[in-house]
Amino acid sequence: MRSGSCDGEVSTKMGDRELAAELRKLCDVLSGSVRGAMDKDNWKERLAALRGLSKLARGDISNCHGFLSLMSMYVKVPLQRHIEELRTVLSTEACYVVSAFAQHSSNRSAWRVATEWFVSSLLQLTTRTNRSSLLAAIETLETLARRKSFGPAAFAELLRGCTARHAATRRNAFGVLQVIIKQGQNDDNEAHLSNFIDAICRVLRSGLADADHETRRRARVCFWILNANEPEAAETLYKGLENSVRRSLDRKMSPSIQKKKETAGSAVTQVLATKKKAAKNEEAEAVKESPLPPQTSITTTKRHGNNLVRKLDEGKKEVEDMAESWALVQDALRSTLWSERLLGLRRLSEEFSRFRQKAECVNLLIPRLNDPNSRVSQMAIQALNVIMRVSPNILKDCLPEVITALLVNMSGNKEVLSSASREHLARIIQLSPVDDVARAIYRTLGDVVAPKVKVHAVEYAQYLYEQNATHFEQASPMHLALHHLLQCLKTEKKGGDVYKATLSALTALYVSAATNFLRILLQFSPGERDAVVEALETAVPHLGQECRRRLMGERPLQHAPLHVRSPFEEKLRRVSDTQPKTRPGTRKQRNVRQQERGIPFSSAPSSVKKTKCSEKVRSVSSNNEQPNGRLEKTRTASCDALNLVRSPTLKQSPFRDSPLRTQRPSHCDPIAPVEAPLSRQVKRKTDDASDLLDLLEEACEMADTCAILNRIQNMIVVNPRPWLEVFGRLLVHLERIIPQSHEPNHAVRRRGLLVLQSLVGQRALQRPIIRSLKQVFLLARVGMDDAFPEVHVEATSVLQLVLSSGIYPTDHILNAIAMSLENWLSDESGYCSRGWLTLLESVEHVFSLYGRTMMLVQEPFKEYAVSQDCFDVNVSETVFRRLCNVVVRAVQHTGSEVRLTAVLVLVSIWMGLDTAALPYLVGLSASQRKLVSLYYNKVASERRTGLHGTVQQRDLSREMRVMRLPEAECL
């Protein structure tokens, strides 16, 4: 790297004031880029200023008075900005300035403090694709490392870069760290390597397992250099690494260490050869002394099949195979790919009985119970069943972790995973000692913070009390149970879910062993006893009376038996009732599987089966579709659905001829559904939302796509909760399916709108739908512009459901409509369609429904907040201003139909909010205000038809003038 822009050493002989004035002048020139970042004319002046700063750096200004103050005041921010400058010449020159300071500053302690300011910017510069800037940044960082310019703060910035988000930053940071570790320590021992050994080991641990190949390579080089300088720290780090990382380190060690190992390995080979030779001599002597005949040798024995030798060879081979299999299982369970983890769990289930490392198997299995992928979690539960069947005692030490993991699964949205976890928890109670299970539950209650998991833990404890009533008639289990449940009563919020579950568990404990419950309860302090009695006053009203009678030595009274609801047992029974019963015989099992997949299992010929299958596909793909000869009925249904959306502002008015009534579809004959059999992939019945979306992504045929969409629609209607996690993916697929207007068959688009309609109608999906209301309106607009009336009807139903269901707050609806209309009106081409017109009319529909009860609020609009009252008709001023601006822009549209619709929307807004809406309509011109006034008076007179009295004529311009609003502009 060059040392500056001028050749030779430059010495500045300035006083402190002259130096400060010079730095201030350079700072003023450099700060011009901050005040005007887009000014490209002054870059030459800034380049000259950077070269002047480099000249001062080569003159060693580090010993001047207040060096750090001057640097912080005049150099820090401008130099940082120019390091990150987009112009290559300026960023490269800024790197040269930092290098000049590193090479020529004699006050090393002060410069190490200043280095911290530029390390982050230099690391950020390494992510660029420009080779000149990249090389300048890397060379500057290496210069700082070689000149020992990294102080504690700068070194911390470098270590932070080793774990940065960008792979280029990580690999270059490890390259600089390699140079620093080679240096070992600074000159004055202020930043010795041992002071940062923990931080270095931490970043090396992450770098050795990094996803980037080059980052891992540089991290390995750093590790072996650290091993040469700090062997104890490197050994500690090596022991804490995973087996796969260790093997990678051993395979790809540094060349010097590899050479040493090869030298040592040759010596070891010679020793082993000597030992083998001695062993052969001893074996020959043993053969001579053996009772075998003289003509028999070991080779002959092997050739003729000696059973002992054969068993020894087979045993040795089996041990090697098991060691290899165990290594594969370890690597698979620690993999980042869910498919490899799934295969590892299958291998673990098959070969667990042959593994010697059974405790390690359990330790590897427990984290997989809560795997992010539900398939892996279900396979882990199956493997856990195998372990409990083969070695039931091995889970005793880790039973709390297992129970906690299964309770966490029960708290998730996956119904299949939750049911499997619940069944396994019930099996644990059957196969494990009651005291071990109880202690594990109590430990979970103490460790877990999530309320939902705590509720499931208390319900599980209640199930344990009910299933083992005789065991809790003993003093010790009852005392332990009361102690932990009392802790839950003290720590949990009164009236919360955990508190209610604890009351239910205490009631079940009392019902299971009432006598022992009272005897142990009296052993607690009076305050704790009164707390339990007060909490159970509703469930067990006679508990206080029984405690007083027992304290006074009186006989207990007879009370009516109590009935306690057990949520855990109810859900367990519900799962067992819904499971299909197994039938003997492969024929019946095959029939059951076919019935689950939707395939008839009659013994009819294949042609009959194909006919039935095609009929099934027809019913799936064309459900509720009209046949070819009933187009007029479909048109009638379409008009009826549109009339639901259209507001009754002008009924039978000659002033409003809606384009939706005059415009006809360009294609009028709906195509009959295609009769195609379902592919084998779609026939597989699955209840997992992610799997269905994977099938939808892979489906190529129209019939397959329709069948999958029908399945998704049915699942959403039955249980929408599992679709919360994959809502984003499903919406992406709908955005791909619905706008496909070039498809000749409309069944896929119609089915996609039906799925969207099911999503919109579910209150459980309110929050994600609110986040995506704009996309929902745009998809409905595309459907209303479709050529087929069937698609048109379903899209209109989606829009009507959003507007009139009461699930979504009015504020969010109007904001989404305004954003959608902004997309349309931002294009000044004058384009118009019936979908956009209907979306504009929906604003009129909203104000016709809620206008009289609607209020404008001053609070800022919370974009994705869910209202407590979904019928809330308060509209924030921000949303209302955006909506009015869009409608005013629509009044100026080139299409007459759009202008008429926008005027009627303004009339409905004026009627709904009266004078409160006038400040937001000042953008209307004088003629537009007059037109709105005419239509307002016309609508008001039509609404008062048949009533006595006259309608007062209102003038929008006059009322705005009274409110002292700006006068209208003349177009």
Structure characterization notes:
By secondary structure, the chain is an all-alpha fold. Among the domains are: 11-122; 150-276, Leucine-rich Repeat Variant; 456-579; 680-921, Leucine-rich Repeat Variant (Alpha Horseshoe). It has 47 helices and two strands. The protein has a two-stranded parallel sheet. The longest helix is centred in the first third of the chain and has 35 residues, at 255-289. It starts with 15 loop residues before the first helix and ends in a 9-residue tail after the last helix.
What is the distance, rounded to the nearest whole angstrom, between the alpha carbons of the first and last residues?
Answer: 65 Å
What coarse outline follows from CA principal-axis ratios?
Answer: globular
> How many β-strand stretches?
2
- The level of helicity is 55-70%
Computed over alpha carbons, the radius of gyration is 40 Å
Per DSSP, the total helix count is 47
For the biggest sheet, the summary is: 2 strands, parallel
Per CATH, the architecture of the domain at 680-921 is: Alpha Horseshoe
Instruction: Pick out the low-confidence regions.
Output: 1-12, 33-38, 185-191, 254-280, 282-312, 580-684, 863-871
User: Which structural category fits the helices and strands?
Assistant: mainly alpha
Protein name: CLASP N-terminal domain-containing protein
Organism: Trypanosoma cruzi
GO molecular function: microtubule binding
